[in-house]
Amino acid sequence: MNAAHAIVITGMGVICPLGRDVPSYWRALQEDDAEPGRRDDAGFNSQMLNNTLCYGVAERGAAPAGSGGASGFALVAAREAMRDAGIDGARAAGMTVALAIGTGAGDSDVGERARLAGGPPEAGDLPYGVADSVAAELGCEGPVFTLSNACSASLYACAYAAELLLDGCADAVVVIGSESIGRVTQAGFERMLALDGEACRPFDARRRGTLLGEGAAALVLERADAAARRGAHVYGELLSYASNCDAHHPTAPRADGARAEAVMREALAHAALDAGAIDAIVPHGTGTQINDATESDILQRVFGDRLGAIPVCAIKSKLGHGAGAAGAFSLLTALLMLRDRLVPPMVNGRRFEPGCDLRFVTGAALAHPVRRVLVNAYAFGGNNMSMIVGGPP
C-alpha cells in the first residue's frame, strides 16, 4: 500500500486465558510458564466427551441479552480497543465506525443450552448474529458484518476492514476475533483425533494435536491520514495481505502446502518486500501433526537459509487454538512485538521435530529489532491468509 492509502492500527483490546486486557496479556505472554493459561473444563456437559481439556477464561464478560459467550468476549475486547484508540463515547462524534467480527462458532453456546434444556434441534443462533448484538451495544453505525470461515476468520475480517476503509465506507473499523469454546466444537475436534490430552505444543516432536482456547482480540483500523488528523497513536501499519482457498479437503491442508506457500509469497510481493525484510514470524502453529509439518516446510521454502535468523513466536502454546479468533490474536501480538522490539517465548516446545529448522524462542523473551512481522492463518476448507505488518509509517 502506498502512503496515501496506508491502513494503520490505532487501538487494541483483549480478553483471554492470560488476562483481561492488553497489559496483562503481554506480561503473561513473556513469562516462561510451564502451565499456559487456565485449563478449564467446568463449562462442559461432559456426556460423550472423553477429552474436556481446554484453555478457558475464568471471568467472562457480560453478554448482551439473548446472546452468548463470543458476544460477551467481543464486547470486553472492543471496549478496551475503542478507548485505546480514543473513539469511544463523545470523542467518536462525527466518525462512522464499522464493525467486523471473525468467529468460527459464534454464540453456539446459546443453542447448546437450549437443546440441552429440551429445545428443538435447530435452537440457537448462527455465528452471524454476533456482529448485530455487539454493534448495537457499541453504537457502530457503519457497515457491520461477521466472517465465519473457520480458523482464519478474523484475519480475513482485518483484510475486509481495510477494503472498507480504502473504499471510504467508514472512518474506522473495529475488528474483533472472538470465540467461546462449546461442547459441539470440543466434540468435533475430539472426533477428528485433533486434540492433545496434555498441552498445546506447536512444532514439538511430541505433539498429538491442539487444545482449544477462547476469548477475543480487538483492533481498531483507520486510514493513516485520518488517524494523523485526529492525533491518534499508531501501533503499526498493515503493509499487505493475500488469501486463497486450496479446496483440497474439508479439514486437512494440502500435504505439499503449495497454496499456503503461494499466499506468503503473494503477501511479500504486494508489499514489495523480499523474504529478507521479515524480522519475525507469528505462525498458525496449531500443534496438529499435518499443519505444523506443512507450515514448517513452506516457511523453509519461502525463507531458505535466512529462516534460522528469524525468530518465531508460536502463541498457541500459551493461548490454545482460538479458532476464528486466532488470526486477530496473532496480529495483535505482532503489533506488540513491533512496539517493544521483543519476541515472547513459547512453552511446551522442548524437543522439536527433526528437519523443523525454525528459530523458536524459548525461556526468556528475545530482544530483537522487529520492524516487519509475517502473520499466518490457515483454516478448514483450505482458507489460507498471510498478512504483513510493520511499524508506524
Essential attributes:
single chain, 393 residues, alpha/beta, Peroxisomal Thiolase, Chain A, domain 1, 2 domains, 9-stranded mixed sheet, two-stranded parallel sheet, 31% helix, 19% strand, PKS_Beta-ketoAc_synthase_dom, Beta-ketoacyl synthase N-terminal-like domain-containing protein, transferase, Beta-ketoacyl_synthase, Thiolase-like
How would you summarize the topology of this molecule?
Blueprint (H helix, E strand, L loop, with lengths): L6 E9 L6 H8 L39 H17 L11 E6 L5 H9 L12 H10 L5 E4 L5 H14 L5 E8 L3 H9 L23 E9 H6 L6 E10 L12 H13 L9 E3 L6 H15 L7 E2 L3 H4 L6 H15 L1 E2 L15 E2 L5 E2 L4 E8 L3 E8 L3
Parallel strand pairs: 2-3, 2-4, 7-12, 8-10
Antiparallel strand pairs: 1-5, 1-6, 4-5, 6-13, 9-11, 12-13
Protein name: Beta-ketoacyl synthase N-terminal-like domain-containing protein
InterPro entries: Beta-ketoacyl_synthase (IPR000794), Ketoacyl_synth_C (IPR014031), Ketoacyl_synth_N (IPR014030), PKS_Beta-ketoAc_synthase_dom (IPR020841), Thiolase-like (IPR016039)
Family: Belongs to the thiolase-like superfamily. Beta-ketoacyl-ACP synthases family.
| Name of the level-1 CATH class of the largest domain | Alpha Beta
DSSP summary: helix tally:
11
Number of domains: 2
Helix content: 25-40%
Strand order in space, largest sheet: 3-2-4-5-1-6-13-12-7
Q: Structural class of the helix and strand makeup?
A: alpha/beta
The biggest beta sheet reads: 9 strands, mixed
Total number of strands: 13
Keywords: Transferase
Family: Belongs to the thiolase-like superfamily. Beta-ketoacyl-ACP synthases family.
Protein name: Beta-ketoacyl synthase N-terminal-like domain-containing protein
Pathway: Lipid metabolism; fatty acid biosynthesis
